[in-house]
Amino acid sequence: MKKPIIIINFKAYDTSFGKKGIEIAKKIQNVSKQYSTEIIVSVPATMIYQLSSELEIPVFAEHVDGVPLGAYTGSIMPEMIKDVGAKGSLLNHSEKRIRLDEIDDALKRLRGLGLESVVCVDRYDLVVPMSLLKPTAVLIEPPELIGSGISVSKAKPEVITRAVNEISKVKDVYLVAGAGITTGEDAYRAIELGADGIGLASAVMKARDPEKIVEELVINSLKACDENE
User: Fold this and answer.
1) What residues have CB less than 8 Å from 174, skipping those under 6 apart?
2) Which tens digits make up the pLDDT trace of 17-41?
3) I want to staple 49 with a disulfide (CB 3.0 to 4.6 A). Which of 84, 142, 186, 214 is the partner?
4) Residues annotated catalytic, as ranges
5) Binding site feature residues
6) CB-CB contact of 25 with 41 (8 Å)
7) How much is the average pLDDT of 116-135?
8) Which residue positions are annotated as catalytic (predicted)?
9) Cis peptide preceding 4, ω within 30 of 0
10) Which residues are annotated as a binding site for substrate?
């Protein structure tokens, strides 16, 4: 992953798949290329192959299961997402919680396959326990702010600052801030507070002009990173 880390989670909106999903993904890539900034798109499993084939930006799965290959009907394994071009996966999103042992199993499998991982947590005191499992990044998102349009960087800045303090105890794990990130100002503030990047969904996926929103987020994220150095 490259700072500023920007993760756009497609979720399961009507814009997340099919022609609409492809259109938004290509608009995101346009901004990524224009500003030479890596933007990760986390997409439904049904979209991984097509988007990985058509895009140069990293495509992640929204979830994987840590179970081994075998008789596990309906499961999505790390081997499966790698085979269709994914570069990594989200894990434990508040809308797709999994047990700690399942997180650990999935992370081990992802690492073994050379795939990246982002584990979601809902409070700062989980940052270190999850970091010790060695994901690529931990994404902290207070669930009450997800999709609210009220950013964590404004409403609960202490969540980010405490998480930054916690993750400093662990080496080589990034901290990403999410929940309610909507504007460039939200992104700027999150990184100014010490986060390595931002995660968001509805601000882009439900926007009338998603490319404009992504551009604003990228410009402000880059500005905050430059000022933090």
Assistant:
1) 1, 3, 5, 136, 137, 138, 167, 196, 197
2) 999 999 999 999 999 999 999 999 9
3) 84
4) 93, 141
5) 9-11, 146, 180, 201-202
6) yes
7) 92
8) 93, 141
9) yes
10) 9-11, 146, 180, 201-202
